[in-house]
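Justification of computing resources. Each target in the renewal requires a structure prediction run like the one illustrated here; the chain below, 163 residues long, is used simply to show the kind of job we budget for.
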Amino acid sequence: MEECSVLIESILPAEDKTSRWFNLSIDYELFRDLLGVEADSGDYQIMDMKLPFAGDIVRTTFVRRLNRLYFAYMELPPEVQQAYNDLISYCGGVEDLLQKSEEFRFYPECHSIMDVARYRLEHNIEFSALSEKGKKYFNLEAYAQELEETGRYAVSENGMFKL
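Resulting structure tokens:
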């Protein structure tokens, strides 16, 4: 799992300015004790971050939102977390990805639509009635073309997702 941490700095007069790295999720009392500001105050800004969902964060993001995004990310299935950077462009952010990921179909070790067609031929119940000889003469290219025309797919390092 990727590291999830943020560098937060208080926006107080120069002599009282403090910055600290926090691992997510952030405890509100610890936050107040270390930075001297309340999590809901807006008297701080995010200076740096090590987050897979950094695109959802701006300098003025509140700690509560950081925690909410972190928990949404942690709820993603492991294969979706691993392919996060490949999939996020199809969604509006980590919360949207979480909602849509329930509908994704993952094809492990598939890196082309032909791989997906082959995987489906071998693993789907709809083809279980085909004999091995029937599978041998199955028009895999036409099936792959139909899959591509009727669905949206995203390729990741570990496989493909039907979106």
